[in-house]
């Protein structure tokens, strides 16, 4: 239904009043001087209106930016009738940074000439701080862990440098391909692998030590967690994997295990000689030393047993000799008695 002019005017006033209640609004002339601002804007910036009216917009920005070519271009754009919408960082009275999602809109007269600029903003400082906090935490994790992201179907979306370094691929070589490129063919065809992805698609995380295959068949062991990421409707939109390369640890444990198996087979010549994770260097040294000591002890016991054996043999010979001589002497004595 068409409204009469008074009706449209009343509607426009009501709409503006609603915006004034919800948004931070400030008006400037074409030179950037402040004409007025609503309570929401003044409160967000920590000023009263009389403290900012007549001042220049540059009071809300860093001095270096106020002197920059970019700032001059910003105002030239507005005075030529072009609006500017994005996320802005402005400086409050206290010196604290305030984040605003805002639109600077040039207002034109009936001749099409810009006579003022109205800024309508939503204060996003808290959201920006939360986003910065989350990003900071993720960046910290990304610096120390290998991270890769997949679609719910297992397609590779992206990976950080740590992950690429572990698997020896470039991002362009894996992006868009399936996770199965990192696992052995027999496992890809298994029911376990299908169940693994169904579990992730259902929103369950998976944490374990995984055997993976890097470029040129390089075997890698990763201590990792696959974490489903949800949208606002709790639907899984991607899976993020956080991993630590534990290949050297697994290799060290395998080497020690091989030595213990050899020891169980009564063989004492085995030594762990391969380069292993420095964290397990003391274990390797202790293992080798223990085997050497055991070998020395067994050799000493063997020598002692040999010595005892030799002594017993000599005693047996002497005993036999003594018995023989005794028999001879007894025989001789018997002969003498008969002659008598």
TrEMBL record:
Q: Ranges for the HAMP domain?
A: 247-299
Q: Where is the PAC domain?
A: 206-258
Any matching Pfam family: PAS_3
List residues of the PAS domain. 25-64
Alphabetized CDD domains for the sequence: PAS
Which cellular component appears as one GO term in the record?
membrane
Source organism's superkingdom? Bacteria
What is one process in the GO biological process aspect for this record? signal transduction
Q: Which InterPro entries match?
A: Bact_Chemotaxis_MeTrfase (IPR050903), HAMP_dom (IPR003660), PAC (IPR001610), PAS (IPR000014), PAS-assoc_C (IPR000700), PAS-like_dom_sf (IPR035965), PAS_fold_3 (IPR013655)
Spell out the NCBIfam families in the cross-references: sensory_box
Specify the protein name: PAS domain-containing protein
Q: Which organism is it from?
A: Acetobacter vaccinii
